[in-house]
Amino acid sequence: MPDFLPHHSVPYPFPRDLTIPQFILDSDTHPLRPSRLANSKWLVDDMSGRAYGIEEIRERVERLARGIRERWGVRPGDVACLYSANDLDYPIVIWALHRLGAIVSCANPSYTHSELEYQLKATSSKLLFTSSASLPTALKAASSAALFAPSNIIVFSPVLPPRSPAECFPASVQTEQGEFATVQSLIDRGWDLVQNYVEPRGEIIGDSIAFLSFSSGTTGLPKAIAIAHRNLIANVLQVAMHERATERGLRDEDRFALPGDACMGVLPMYHIYGLVMNLHFVLFCGMTLVVCPKFNFQNMLASIVRHHITHLYIVPPQVVMLVNNPITKQYDLGHVRFAMVGAAPLSKEVTEKFKAMFPRMRMGQGYGMTETCTIVSKFLFQQESVNGSAGLLIPDTIARIVKEDGSVADYGEPGELWVKGPQMALCYANNKKATEETFLPEGWVRTGDEALMTKEGNLFVVDRLKEILKVNGYQVAPAELEGHLIVHPYVQDAGVVGILDEYKGEVPLGFVVLEPSVAKRVHSSPSELEKVKSELKKWVADNKVRYKHLYGGVEFVEAVPKNPSGKILRRLLRDQAREIVSRRAEREQTKARL
């Protein structure tokens, strides 16, 4: 059986001679770039309404690059970490660093100090950009990592809400821990500086690393994925081609992006989905991006109405809210004409309800991962999406389904999904073994997901072969939680698997083998049992980001099943987990009857 080809298979020349800001900011014309309203805003702050047009963006990027260069001497190949919620200046910082040839590593702003410390060390970050809210954690991580002094930390926004225009852009942020430069102070300094750096250029400058984005890959702890400038640029152009963005002859209702369209920027920009699609692709398509620092469901509904949002990039939990929360009906969302759901599967039942609620909205799912610099497949805007499908392969993307025996699957046969295309990331940085397991010869990337392809070209992701859990669309490595549980003095061994959750997709459930003395206490007293369970859940909650918490609970077992080499037999743990979920459901039904 030959490899599966995209519905649009005409080769397209993806540029290798541009960096991301050169591609996004320096040229207003491209054959696949939809037209934009004259003087339209590119970025708008959701709550304040403050906005940047292209000229202001270019100036802020340039002045910030000069300010960073003068103070820290940043050069090509240096790494800077961004540890912040969405901010109007978040992309400004990214593009300024790219102008200098630096590499950007975006971190989850909910990370604990130990998780951030791990990322700072893994990337050898030289600078750390953070928000006022995240500053205490950032300081603790930087101190623990012993990487750099507080003078290498830059704050996005003031500590307190501004009471006057002057306070919107303080020259520095003063805290108990010291005084910190702000992004605005560096931009202000940049106005007084002449050009003090040479922007990297050349025929293959696009091959240089733009991002070190973290993912758990198919197994184990988070790994730094090296994403080149050309990977992101290619994915933006591939999706534009897929959406027939500038094709002549289309009716307005069939055109993906129209002048004046606006998109909700509620996805976190540190996440590959938000970074590539919700930020760079949206701006490339001529839309205004409304930047939301933090997700709040009712605020999102109000913002959709206030900014006349036409496009939504969202995740399954947000769709569940739109469908199930009665306040949705209080808002007129009839102007929304596009919604893409990604980062985790959406059930057929919820999809049907969502489509029924918004019949004029074109909606469907897509599939991708950090290792593929986001999109591999997605529904086509001009066609009715197939319920449960992750859509069609985007242009210049090839898929292969590999069965357990190593043979290549035919249509309708499940197996592990392999993909290749110009958007594939380069490797796992400084991790040869993991790279060889996932990034295969001839450009193939093993996704670790079980999938099948229909004769109509629809990709269905049916299960995950890899160990990684998807909680609210975020990757959770069981090995990370297991390693953390095992160092607790109560724990002798541990295994973690996911259980289904209607809202979060799946949540971690911990199987724990207790130390003999603790096990004896637990067996002798129900209250002691609950006390120890609570202690272990708190142990995780106090040290891990929220989506890694043991929402599925803790179960005590005599032993964690393993093979002769010591590898956890997760299939057996999943079987036990299903039995536990079933017993819980039965207990709930009994309570309801009583």
Automatic annotation (TrEMBL):
Keyword field: Ligase
Q: What's the short name of a Pfam family annotated to this entry?
A: AMP-binding
Q: Where is each AMP-dependent synthetase/ligase domain found?
A: 47-428
User: Which InterPro entries does this one have?
Assistant: AMP-bd_C, AMP-bd_C_sf, AMP-binding_CS, AMP-dep_synth/lig_dom, ANL_N_sf
Give the superkingdom in one word.
Eukaryota
User: What are the residue boundaries of the AMP-binding enzyme C-terminal domain, all occurrences included?
Assistant: 480-567
Q: Name one GO molecular function term.
A: CoA-ligase activity
User: Could you identify this protein by its name?
Assistant: Phenylacetyl-CoA ligase
Provide the taxonomic classification.
Answer: Eukaryota, Fungi, Dikarya, Basidiomycota, Agaricomycotina
